[in-house]
Amino acid sequence: MAGQTYNPYDNVLKVMDDAAALLGYSSSDIEALKYPERELKVAIPVVMDDGTTRVFEGYRIQHSTSRGPAKGGVRFHPAVNLDEVKALAAWMTFKCAVVNIPYGGGKGGVVCNPTELSERELRAITRRFTAAIAPLIGPDQDIPAPDVGSNAAVMGWMMDTYSMLKGHCVHGVVTGKPIELGGALGRNEATGRGVMFTTKNIMKKLGMEFKGTDVAVQGMGNVGSITAKLLDEEGMKVVAVSDVSGGIYKKEGLNIPAILKFLGADRKNLLKDYEEEGMTRISNSELLELDVTVLIPAALENQINASNVDRIRAKVIVEAANGPTAAEADPILKEKNIVVVPDILANAGGVVVSYFEWVQNIQSVSWTEAEVNEKLKNIMDPSFEAVWNIAQEKNTTLRMGAYLIAVERVVKAKKARAIWP
Ligand code: NAD
């Protein structure tokens, strides 16, 4: 990743400070939000398949519980570090606030490379990590979910480990679980579906045609692949996609169902081995710089930064990933009249349906997929509208609009509770 000194938590602090200034808040109003409430670092010893013992490092951070239990994913990736997890936890606080669901923000991570681990090794890491963070998590305290490198199977193992430690079945401790364990129908697709709703919403506001319009998607994991699938099904032309191995481009539009079939056949399959007539291979940086109408970064942080922002040509960026745009790039994108729909709004579909899953678990009820999708739309659309309106009213970016709403909600909750003791 570009930018050696990049610190995502500095990004969070900068945007929060800017929003607080626009809201007329004093430094005391937001001081406590600059510090995560809890930071736990754990060592995770695991016996590997070759008989050696390796110790992995893991984190669970609760940024804020002012509006409800901490909520946020668990990332398994070699680049995981404390500042990244802190930033991801804080983004969850503001994401839950902007869509007004009763959660604070948390995040976890383990420094490991799941693509190099056997399933048994991954399960051992998951179980030991869950045991190590067990004192902090629980349906009323902190509820993990999938993020980069983790998935429904990992959530199933987390739920089982926590339940074993408690001595009884605790469905609501994690979301994004397998359906058989109380997972919500529609959760797997929820983040991508929310990105699709958001893309439609922004294009409508900007008076742009949705059907037939070209879009490039960076990252073909859970979020990127479902986003590409739904945008393709709804009639957009997906001209480029990429994963960690690089990207592919086809002016007439790629065969998304064929790509998804290829990637879904084996979790180790990568786009570098995919073939389609008429496509060309491009790098991840080339994908970001394509002359397309819509660009959807759905991989990692800091993809659009000082080093490439001058070359970005998309007209609209919908942030499916968390933190794909570095703070220094935002004003330049604004100058270039590139509209950015911020992560805390655009990718909130995942946590919204996680909330639905938790509500169903607590009440021991289950909703149909159609009900879930409809309820998701009923949260995503008004949230978009509110962000759009405040950004227009204050003549600011959609990112700042989203933060104005989110920071105000969190600060009001903090004030209503007052500082204890
Ligand atoms: P994932 O592990 O399922 O997929 C990540 C994808 O990114 C993979 O295709 C991987 O090959 C690709 N990738 C990795 N490094 C890359 C690089 N340098 N360039 C291009 N592609 C690269 O992860 P995910 O769950 O899809 O998460 C993607 C992003 O969306 C993250 O920022 C995550 O925090 C965010 N997000 C996820 C959810 C969710 O529900 N899973 C919800 C909200 C936000």
| Helix residue percentage | 40-55%
Compressed to H and E, one letter per element, the order equals HHEEEHEHEHHEHEEHEHEEHEHHHH
Average pLDDT reading: 97
In CATH, the homologous superfamily of the largest domain goes by the name NAD(P)-binding Rossmann-like Domain
Spell out which ligands are present: nicotinamide-adenine-dinucleotide
Q: Output the CATH class name of the largest domain.
A: Alpha Beta
Q: How would a crystallographer describe the biggest sheet?
A: 7 strands, mixed
Count of domains: 2
Sum this structure up briefly.
The protein has 14 helices and twelve strands. By secondary structure, it is α/β, with parallel strands linked by helices.
Layout of SSEs?
Elements: H1 8-23, H2 27-31, E1 38-47, E2 53-64, E3 70-77, H3 82-98, E4 105-111, H4 119-133, E5 142-146, H5 152-166, H6 187-205, E6 214-218, H7 222-233, E7 237-243, E8 246-249, H8 256-264, E9 280-282, H9 284-288, E10 294-297, E11 316-318, H10 330-335, E12 339-341, H11 343-346, H12 349-363, H13 369-393, H14 398-417
Parallel strand pairs: 3-4, 3-5, 6-7, 6-10, 10-11, 11-12
Antiparallel strand pairs: 1-2, 2-4, 7-8, 8-9
The protein binds nicotinamide-adenine-dinucleotide.
